[in-house]
């Protein structure tokens, strides 16, 4: 049996997940299908990383709830999980740092697996174990996002140039867009993105399913149904804890997003 | 004289292939219910999914048994939407109007007969309508709550595609469309920026009964077409989170959709087109 080793791939999605919706979970499914069809990758894990409360986005409710809802939603998924690391940091963390963290974690896991294999008696190892032990293929970690995310690279002061470079060069993007939008254009308009376009995988979503969390919150505030857009378990959770209200939507109102705050400080040190 | 504070009871009836049922189909019910509740004049008491019979002969239509089962699985944890297999168990294809009449009949009397011939029209054709098109002869019901108007109405729940299909030659009988909008009513869910209002404007019959055509705008884009679901399945792509998990599991277990299943009825004329063409010849 010829074993063509595909590169193990981890998909990481960063975002508010305020709340998690069926669309968020669809992104993972679409990305996995696409990367498998390239013939080069084997998706081994999907990680959802809700942003830290310190991000300061309007209407962002406590990470405790956002993590709990994501856990409920992903209960039935055998490959996607939610990770609280980013939300547990003391401050907001740049996306590139989240990518680095999870990549290092995956390497650590690989290393400890190798140790484990080494300590196993040869007879206990399966053929597959032996093969991968001797020829470990390093995993890759790519950032899973929507096309609108690509566009945000252009927002002044939101991203550091060197971070964008590291994201597309060292990690890579899997970018889902809907029929009719053209992310290739954003790539074309950026020299940096163009240079690393081989590491930006564009996936088209033909089945329109743009369930924006903002609209979900809007519906919830008005007592309208969000059934079949958001898992039932999440709907129950929201109702039970009465999380989304007019008041919760006003949270952080008028505040600058944390990344913009940071970059403004760096640019204008004399304002202290 | 009816009490204006009383609410009219409404049953939402969705006819279609449900091949397979998707989250979008289920959403239609939720959107319609919210809409009626917000008017303050209606109370939605039930939702009915009525999958079309195999005799419809649509391309790619798999057996009604499966379609009904999937719909039932999908609505298992809904406390107000249910599946009715009367339409799908008829040996011949039935006009939508007949299904509407049947369900209306069923609401009025506790023991409806199963014969489609007994699905008689509510009013004689040609009868002049009074100002309020929703008025029906009152029927005495037991245990009626004081704020409910006497007779529940069955309204056809659909997307803009069905409404606009009224324009396809020979697909619908003109008198059927008239009776649907005149005696029952339509609830049409469509995406923001649609052409439905224009379509209604351009049709004299629809325009005349526009008070009985309720347009609901869906702001959350959720265009999960069953055709695309079947396509994804043929290509081994995931349909998770587009259909209820139980439906996805059922499809996978029974290997329902394949290139072969999509070829079913290929080249066969759709039942309503065949029927209406032969009727007009007679």
UniProtKB/TrEMBL annotation, chain A:
Enzyme class: transferase
Catalysis: reaction(s): nicotinate beta-D-ribonucleotide + ATP + H(+) = deamido-NAD(+) + diphosphate; beta-nicotinamide D-ribonucleotide + ATP + H(+) = diphosphate + NAD(+)
Enzyme Commission number(s) of this protein: 2.7.7.1, 2.7.7.18
Cytidyltransferase-like domain span: 12-217
One Pfam family matching this protein: CTP_transf_like
TM annotation in the entry: none
SUPFAM superfamilies xrefs: Nucleotidylyl transferase (SSF52374)
Location in or out of the cell: Nucleus
Gene Ontology CC: mitochondrion; nucleus
Pathway: Cofactor biosynthesis; NAD(+) biosynthesis; deamido-NAD(+) from nicotinate D-ribonucleotide: step 1/1; Cofactor biosynthesis; NAD(+) biosynthesis; NAD(+) from nicotinamide D-ribonucleotide: step 1/1
GO MF assignments: ATP binding; nicotinamide-nucleotide adenylyltransferase activity; nicotinate-nucleotide adenylyltransferase activity
Membership in a protein family: Belongs to the eukaryotic NMN adenylyltransferase family.
Quaternary data: Homohexamer. Interacts with ADPRT/PARP1.
Name by which UniProt lists this protein: Nicotinamide-nucleotide adenylyltransferase
Organism: Ardeotis kori
Gene assigned in the entry: Nmnat3
From TrEMBL, chain B:
InterPro entries linked to this entry: Cyt_trans-like, Euk_NMN_adenylyltrnsfrase, NadD/NMNAT, NMNAT_euk, Rossmann-like_a/b/a_fold
Bias kind Polar residues: ranges: 111-120
Pathway annotation from the record: Cofactor biosynthesis; NAD(+) biosynthesis; deamido-NAD(+) from nicotinate D-ribonucleotide: step 1/1; Cofactor biosynthesis; NAD(+) biosynthesis; NAD(+) from nicotinamide D-ribonucleotide: step 1/1
Catalytic activity: beta-nicotinamide D-ribonucleotide + ATP + H(+) = diphosphate + NAD(+); nicotinate beta-D-ribonucleotide + ATP + H(+) = deamido-NAD(+) + diphosphate
Protein keywords: ATP-binding, Magnesium, NAD, Nucleotide-binding, Nucleotidyltransferase, Nucleus, Phosphoprotein, Pyridine nucleotide biosynthesis, Transferase, Zinc
Subunit note: Homohexamer. Interacts with ADPRT/PARP1.
Protein name listed in UniProt: Nicotinamide-nucleotide adenylyltransferase
Disordered: annotated span: 108-147
Gene: Nmnat1
Entry's Gene Ontology cellular component terms: nucleus
Keyword NAD: yes
Domain (Cytidyltransferase-like): residue spans on this chain: 13-231
Cofactor: Mg(2+); Zn(2+)
Species annotation: Ardeotis kori
Single biological process term from Gene Ontology: NAD+ biosynthetic process
């Amino acid at each position: 049996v010829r074993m063509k080793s595909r590169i193990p791939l981890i998909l990481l999605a960063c975002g508010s997940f305020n709340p998690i919706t069926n669309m968020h979970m669809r992104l993972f499914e679409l990305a996995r299908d696409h990367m498998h069809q390239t013939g080069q990758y084997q998706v081994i894990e999907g990680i959802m990383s809700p942003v830290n409360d310190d991000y300061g986005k309007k209407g962002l409710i406590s990470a405790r709830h956002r993590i709990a809802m994501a856990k409920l939603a992903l209960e039935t998924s055998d490959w996607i999980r939610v990770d609280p690391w980013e939300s547990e940091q003391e401050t907001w963390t740049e996306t590139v740092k989240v990518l680095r963290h999870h990549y290092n974690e995956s390497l650590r896991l690989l290393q400890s697996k190798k140790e484990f294999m080494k300590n196993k008696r040869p007879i206990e190892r399966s053929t597959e174990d032996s093969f991968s032990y001797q020829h470990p293929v390093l995993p890759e970690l790519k950032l899973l996002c929507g096309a609108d995310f690509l566009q945000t690279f252009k927002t002044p002061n939101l991203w550091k140039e060197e971070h964008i470079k590291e994201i597309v060069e060292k990690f890579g993007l899997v970018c889902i867009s809907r029929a009719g939008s053209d992310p290739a254009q954003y790539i074309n308009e950026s020299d940096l993105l163009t240079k690393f376009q081989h590491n930006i995988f564009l996936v088209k979503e033909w089945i329109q399913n743009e369930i924006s969390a903002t609209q979900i919150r809007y519906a919830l505030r008005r007592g309208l149904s969000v059934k079949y857009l958001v898992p039932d378990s999440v709907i129950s959770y929201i109702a039970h804890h009465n999380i989304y209200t007019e008041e919760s939507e006003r949270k952080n109102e008028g505040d600058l997003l944390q990344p913009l705050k940071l970059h403004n400080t760096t640019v204008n040190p004399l304002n202290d | 004289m009816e009490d204006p504070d009383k609410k009219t009871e409404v049953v939402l009836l969705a006819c279609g292939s449900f091949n397979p049922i998707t989250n979008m189909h289920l959403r239609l019910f939720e959107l319609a219910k919210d809409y009626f509740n917000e008017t303050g004049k209606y109370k939605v008491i039930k939702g009915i999914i009525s999958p079309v019979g195999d005799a419809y002969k649509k391309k790619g239509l798999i057996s009604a048994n499966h379609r009904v089962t999937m719909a039932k699985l999908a609505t298992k944890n809904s406390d107000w939407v249910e599946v009715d297999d009367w339409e799908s168990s008829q040996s011949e294809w039935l006009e939508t109007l007949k299904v509407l009449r049947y369900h209306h009949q069923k609401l009025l009397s506790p023991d409806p007969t199963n014969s489609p011939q007994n699905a008689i029209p509510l009013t004689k054709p040609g009868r002049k309508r009074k100002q309020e098109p929703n008025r029906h002869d009152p029927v005495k019901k037991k245990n009626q709550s004081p704020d409910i108007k006497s007779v529940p109405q069955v309204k056809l729940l659909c997307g803009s595609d069905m409404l606009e299909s009224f324009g396809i030659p020979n697909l619908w009988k003109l008198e059927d469309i008239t009776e649907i909008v005149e005696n029952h009513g339509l609830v049409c869910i469509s995406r923001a920026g649609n052409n439905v209002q224009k379509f209604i404007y351009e049709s004299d019959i629809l325009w005349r009964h526009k008070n009985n055509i309720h347009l609901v705008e869906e702001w959350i884009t959720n265009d999960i077409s069953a055709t695309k679901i079947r396509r994804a399945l043929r290509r081994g792509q995931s349909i998770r989170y587009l259909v209820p998990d139980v439906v996805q599991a059922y499809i996978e277990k029974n290997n329902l959709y394949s290139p072969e299943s999509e070829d079913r009825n290929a080249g066969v004329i759709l039942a309503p087109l065949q029927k209406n063409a032969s009727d007009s010849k007679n």
